[in-house]
Amino acid sequence: MRKTHLALALLVTLVWGINFPVTKLGLRSIDPFVLTGIRFALAALPWVFFIRRPAVRFRYVAAYGVIFGLGMWGVINYGIQLGVNPGIASLIIQLSVFFTLGWGCVLFKEKIRRAQWIGALFALAGLAGIIVTQQGNAAVLGVLMIVLSALAWSIGNVIIKASGVKEIFSFMVWASLFPPVPLFLMAWWLHGSSAFSGLAASLDFTAVLSILFQVYLATHFAYWGWNSLLKAYPVSTVAPLSLLIPVFGIASSMLILGERIAVPHLLFIAVIIIGLAVGLYRKRDCASA
User: Fold this and answer.
1) What are the angstrom distances between the C-alpha of 212 and each of 36, 58, 66, 207?
2) How far is CA 129 from CA 102, 125, 133, 213, 271, in A?
3) Spatial CB neighbours of 79, under 8 Å, sequence gap ≥ 6
4) Which residues contact 266 (CB under 8 A, 6 or more apart)?
5) pLDDT given at position 112
6) Residue 269 or residue 289, greater confidence
C-alpha cells in the first residue's frame, strides 16, 4: 500500500476512534436511533441536490445505506446506550475484519492464511471473555448488538467492492438518504413518542457538536477515505487496517469521558488485539510477496 494511502488510513481510523466517545456524548440526551437518523439525514441533505448520483445500480446505493445506517451505526449506538463502553465497542466492531475476510474468500476468491484463522480464534476467545464478564443482561445484549453491527459493516464492505463505484463521496451522500426513515421507525417501535419528545431541548451545545462530528468527519470524510481504499485494494488488505480504531477509541474514551476499563476486560482486549494483529501482519507479508 502506498504511503499516502497509509496516511489516509491512519487519519480515517483516528477520526473513527474518536467518534465512539463523541457519539456517547450525544447519546446522553438523544435516543440512539434518533441520533443516528439525524446524522444520516444531515449527511444526505442538502447535498443530494448538488451532487450527481453515482453511476452504479441504485440497488447498491440503497442496500449500502440501510445496512450501513441502520444495521451498523444504529445498532452500535443502541449497544453503547445499553451499557457497552465506547472504547470496548470500538474494539468489538473490529470483528468485521474476520467477517470481511470470510466474504472475500467466498465471493472474491481471496485466500485466507492459516495465521488469519488463528487470529480469528484469538479474537473470538477474547470476545467470549468480554461477554462472560459483562454485568447485567442489558450489557450482554449491548455486546451482541456490537457484534451484529460488525457483521453489517463487513456486508457493507462487500457491497462497495461489488458495486465497482468510482464516485465514492457521491455514493456516501446518496446512500445516506435511506437510513433516516428506518431509524426513526425503529426508535418509535422501541420507545414510542418518548424517543422524540423534548428533542429540541436535548440539542444542547454538546449534542450539536457530537452530531456535526459524526456527519462531516465520521461520515463524509472517513467513509470517503475508507471506501476509496476499498476501491483501490482487496477487501482482505484494507479490512485489517481497522485494527487502529480501537487503539484510538479506547484512548479517546479515557481522555474525553474519563472512562476506566476493568482489569479482566483489559486482558480480553489484549487477546482480541493479538488476534487482529496476527491477521494484519500476515496479510501485509502476503501483499508484499
Assistant:
1) 12, 27, 21, 9
2) 23, 6, 6, 32, 9
3) 89, 141, 142, 143, 144, 145, 146, 149
4) none
5) 66
6) 269
List CB contacts of 194: < 8 A, sequence separation 6 or more. Answer: none
Q: How far is CA 190 from CA 69, 150, 196, in A?
A: 17, 22, 12
List pLDDT tens digits, range 1-45. 677 888 888 899 899 999 999 999 999 889 999 999 999 999 999
Cell numbers given for 92: 468489538
CB within 8 Å of 245: residues ≥ 6 apart: 13, 16, 17, 90, 93, 94
Q: Has residue 240 got a pLDDT over 60?
A: yes
Give the CA distances from residue 276 to residues 92, 160, 179, 239, 249, in Å, rounded to whole numbers and listed in that order.
11, 22, 30, 10, 15
> Cβ contacts of residue 247 below 8 Å, gap of 6+?
17
Which cell goes with 186?
425503529
The grid coordinates listed for 157 are: 464492505
Structural contact between residues 17 and 246, judged by C-beta atoms closer than 8 angstroms: yes
Q: What mean pLDDT is predicted for residues 73-80?
A: 94
For the chain, how many residues are written? 289
Percent of the chain with pLDDT over 70: 90
Which residues make Cβ contacts (< 8 Å) with residue 123, sequence separation at least 6?
94, 95, 97, 98, 271, 272, 275, 276
Look at the alpha carbons of 212, 217, 223, 228 in this order and tell me if their dihedral is positive or negative.
Answer: positive
Closest CA to 30 of 197, 233, 228: 197
Domain positions in the chain:
3-288
The DSSP secondary-structure symbol of 50 reads T
